[in-house]
Structure formats: C-alpha cells, structure tokens
Amino acid sequence: LGYTVIFLTGKLFTGTADGKILEINGDDIRVVATLGKPPCGKFDDEPTCGRPLGMRFDKDGSLVVVDAYLGLFRVNVETGKFVQLYSPETLVDGEQAAFLNDLDIDSDGTVYFTDSSTNWGRRYNRYAAMEAKKNGRLLAYNPNTKQTEVILKNMSFPNGVQLSPEKDFILIAELCTCKILQYHTKGPRKGEVEIFSDNLPGAPDNIRPSSSGGYWVGLATTRRAGKFSLLDYTSTKPWMKKLIFKVFGMKMRNVF
Description:
Elements: E1 5-8, E2 11-15, E3 20-25, E4 28-34, H1 46-49, E5 52-57, E6 63-67, E7 71-75, E8 82-86, E9 100-105, E10 111-115, H2 125-131, E11 136-142, E12 147-155, E13 158-163, E14 169-174, E15 179-184, E16 193-197, E17 202-209, E18 215-222, H3 230-234, H4 238-248
Antiparallel strand pairs: 1-2, 2-3, 3-4, 5-6, 6-7, 7-8, 9-10, 10-11, 11-12, 13-14, 14-15, 15-16, 17-18
C-alpha cells in the first residue's frame, strides 16, 4: 500500500506500488483509478506506471491525489474518471518537479503540495536523502487561475504537509534535518517560516492531525541517544557520502 491511507464513510482509500488507487471496504477491494500506464512492478517502470502518494478529499467529495511522477490529479471515486491539475513537466520558477510527495487543501481550494527533490525521482529516494541538498519545494496550485507557484524552497527532502485547523499556517516535515517547519499562510506573519519542532527522534515522513490535538508524525528512520545514525554521521562528511554512493549504488536501499 501507499504512504497515505485516508478514511471516508467506512471506506479506506490508498495508493499502491503498481500505480493504482484503491478503495477498501471491509474485505472488498476496488480499483478506483490507474493514473499511469503499464507495465508496472519493476524499478524502471515507476516513472510511467506512477506512484500515488499524498491524497485528500476536497469539499466537493473528489479525491485529490499527488503522484510522485505524474502530477496532481482530481479523481471521481465513483466513476474513476480523473483530471490532471498539474504536470511535473511544467516549469515553476524555471524548474520541473522530480519527486512529488504529499498535499493538503486550503478552505479556498488551494492545494499545497511538496516536491521533495528537483533532482531525484521517488525510486532514488535514498540518493535524495543521503545527498540532503536543499532543492525541495512547497508548491501551491490555484484552482481559479489553474496556475502553480513556488511558496517555499531551499528545503532538504520535504514530504508531509498539514494545514492548521484555522488554516493560518502549514506544517512541512523536512526529512533530512529531522524538523517540522511552520509556514504562515495568513495574518500579519504571512510568508514567514520558522521551526515548529526540531531534533525529532527520527527522520519525519508524513504528518497528520491528532483527534486529541497536536499532530502525528511518521518516522522513516529513528535516531536514538547513543545509537549510530548514518544520516547524522554523514551529514558533515560529504566525502563519505560520495564513497557510499560509489560503493553501494542502488544497493543503498539495503544500507538504511
């Protein structure tokens, strides 16, 4: 299953590694839509097969999905028909997106979504994490103008996105720095960014609200006092990163 699972009227919706969006209702599993094209299942198939990641329902009941490779879509979960809202091939501030990740939707319909890296696609996520370059971005799709703009850039592998209950700020999980960033979307501090939570006990990967207040943050890897962390250890040793890249290549997915 995908990185995101959402719940609506007793049903679960999620994406899969072979590019499908599924509806799960008890023991029944239904394919809602397939955004990409076959073949699927192999490493080199991902860019065309697709990899649905972040998803939310909008106020009209449509499922808004961001696919790591294929872009931003609005999906009718009853008919399976979908419309592409944004293509990663579209230049935004002179750059294409390479690794779209998560999204949230504002009350006016604006869709905020992350581009974890402008260099590495999802299948090379270990490379992006080890490289830790600040080439990640927060993008915003305006449903009225149909245009997408860069809201925040120079982040190191941003992934999870979550608007506050009042919609006055947005939280972004920054994996490589083990931080949660807070970007103000409204009010006198609009446009400002600050650290919401620092030095997390692991690399954050996704963030969602808790029903009791606060937020749930998933961790892709853990950091423990007195325990070795490859990401921490190599963070100030670029020469070692190059050596690991050279020796392990794509086998790095088995290293951490």
